[in-house]
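[job 0412] stage=fold_complex status=start
inputs:
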Amino acid sequence: MSSPTIDYRKLVAYAAGDLPETEASQIEVQLVRDPQAAATVRHFQAARAIIQSDDGLDPPPEAVARACSIFSPPAVERSGNWWEALEQILAALVFDSRGQLAVAGYRYRGIDGGFQLCFECEPADVELQVEPTERFSREVEPRPIWQVMGQIVAARRAPNIEVALVRQGATIPVAETSADSQGIFSLEAPSGRYDLFIRHGNGSVVLRDIDLS
Amino acid sequence: MPATVSHPHHPTGRLAARSDPILIQGCLDGEKESWEELVNRYGRLVYSVARRFGLAEADAQDVFQNVFVIVYRKLAGVRDRKRLAAWLIRTTQRECYRLGARVAARAAGEQDLAHVEGPAQDQVAVWERRVLVRVALRRLGGRCEQLLTALFLAPGCPNYETLAQEMGMKIGSIGPTRARCFQKLEQILKELGFKDQDSPKDVSRPSPPPSAR
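[job 0412] stage=fold_complex status=done
writing structure:
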């Protein structure tokens, strides 16, 4: 790129129309040989034309204030992934109706494809009832959506138990909720393999590898 | 026509210097100031598009609110964060159509909104360029923003004597200050992607004034 040949101050004065005829003519001769300077003149004239032709309207201040108030920063406790930050307690799978032989000698799987899972660990036992819904996810290749209903039976009752279903390998939950006073919760997620995290006191109970299929 | 909007939610110049992708990331990180800057930066555009659609002030304010609710919800999914203006224009247009249909149904023949057409593609380009120039001026801030805005807005040849009085400057310092400020503005415009083809190709001879440089 060649270095500018015209003094910038004079160039802007030309673009603004401040130069007398003779000086303007001299600048024009130089502009032919200096594309960078010519671009500056065009930029100045374009910016001025844009501002002069701006027939836009400022929104009323109250409308701006309302729009500003839409924003609510995430709660501090949700600013990070609590299930990753907290100490994790792995719950053991003690019952899977899909793989268990019942007393009568047949595998239990609900007529709609539902199944039950039971997990145990020291702070809590968790029972899950998984049922397919008739809905599908909004994806390029839609997947069936499953409902995961659970009950947490904790050794120590804790208020506001949070539950998060996270696809394996992901960091953002596909579904989050809180258990009610009876420890019951319900979540929905499309087919896939998930980990379920239950916030319990200063730790989180982890139910690994829940296969919704 | 005021160059900037002044209200309690107007963020500081520090944020005005941020690019759109950085501002969006700030919103996603929970920074309320970033959101306020975003609303201020694009509020005029959204409101102007709505009014250009033929909507009354109250309806335009509804669209304004709806658009920013959508922006808030979908911010994480904006694919091209450098072309936020284009996405906002499309979103505002859609909201105008939706509201227009409701208004038409309500009016039941009293008001025919069929004549209300969305803006042409070249009009969209004009709006985008306006946003760029206004954002660049705001990023400039301070005396430079005031001086260039006043100079750009002045029809024909500005009255430098009056301008000098208004700005509290010596008339002889307007030229050098203008050049210094425009040099900064030009640099910001380049950073924002204000391309040379956005400007008229031919440098038109500005009409020479009798005095002032």
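[job 0412] summary: The first strand of chain A starts at residue 87 and ends at 90.
[job 0412] exit 0
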